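Render this sequence as a predicted structure.
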Amino acid sequence: MSNILIDFYKKTLESLGLYCTEDGYIKVSKDGDFLVKSAKERIPLVLPTQEHIKTLLEDDNGKAKIVKLPFNPLDENALKGETTSIRKMKIIIEQRITQGIYVAGLLLLKLGENEKVISSPSMNITDFLRRLSKLRNQNVKKLIDDKVISIFDRLYKAFKELNVPFFKIHIKKNGVYQGTKYYKLATGKSELYEKLVNGEEFNFKMRNKDRKAAQIVFEYLLGVTPEQPLVAYGSNGKYPSFETLMSMYIDIMGKIMSILKELSVVDQELADSLEIELKVTKNDLESLDIYSPYVAAIPSLTDIQTTMHNTEVSKQQVVQQPQQTNNVVSNNVQTQQVQQQVEEDPTRSVINKIMNRSNVAMTPVQQPVYGAPQPIVNQQPVGYPQQPQQVRPVGLNGAIQQAQMSMYNRPQPMYGQQPQYGIPQQPMYGAPQPMYGQPAYGALQPTYGMPQQQYQRPMGANGLLR
């Protein structure tokens, strides 16, 4: 596997506040637990190195068992749905933004309590203080006090106990935002902010200024308003889910981390409690195509499960196949191959198929030059029908790809060149069609004395495609 993709994935994970071990495992922190698929299926996620891809499976009483999954968030396929890597990224981003809102919110409120801590605040901090000043009235001497800060802290802990993040992300396919349609649209919103705006009650008493101060924190950090409570990012690129998630994360966490850096003088320990370095930038998201050939070579969970299933089915079919008489040498060879397939280690069999798939995906496909003559593979003598070119299927959808490639890889004559005799030609759109009972242009002419073969009229709704 290419080092440039591994390096990029390391940057992505470190930007999310995760830690990569030297042997390619991913941890939630340096001293924390491993990043796993789910709480129920504790299968660790790993960097997609060649060593890890070779050891994704282990033998479990004669059957292959998945023991780790490659982290590959750029593997996006509409047929596969949301992948494990994207789903884990979304959850982690929700958690990091929630932590950022909490830490930055406390620092901002503490600054509002004592504005003299910073003599010359930046324009961003001045904007927040200006928002707070609009809430003051003549009867309130001090808007932010200890209780405002403690209420904000209590709100965070109450949502944490319910396992509900401050910030929730939803990725929608074919979404529309402000009149623009996107293939993937990621929207983020805060359930707590909506409750504050709607004046909903909590299980503890809140003053009006407690509610308003917390509301201002969300509006300042997320850029939301009561009229537009959503944060939205859309993409029509090749990797839309990854692009929308990382764009949202870079913008929101970039602002939060700059606030933490500036307000470290307010509370150094609190500011240091969230250590995240954004190593992935918006420029990196504009050049994701360079990773395409390497992304395709990494098997997904769906690929692994499908390969395991097909291998098991093939093995059962081989076992149930009746024994043939050994009167033909070819049958003896086939019988020996069948026995080898049955006795082969199931884990190694699946791994070999996965590695073969990876090698095929990594092989660059040479595109034919437009207008150049196409090569004829296994050409027969002139006057005989040519054997169709064999195309090796790629990936799990090989049957579909083979059918598609066979449609477009037929030898075609160059402009001004006569078609080769004996090769059935495809009629051009709008060209005269052969009459019923007449041979098609370029077809073999019948030998004298032999019955003429009639033109077969295509049947069915898809006859024109046949």
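Summary. Residues 84-277 form one domain. The first strand starts at residue 19 and ends at 20.
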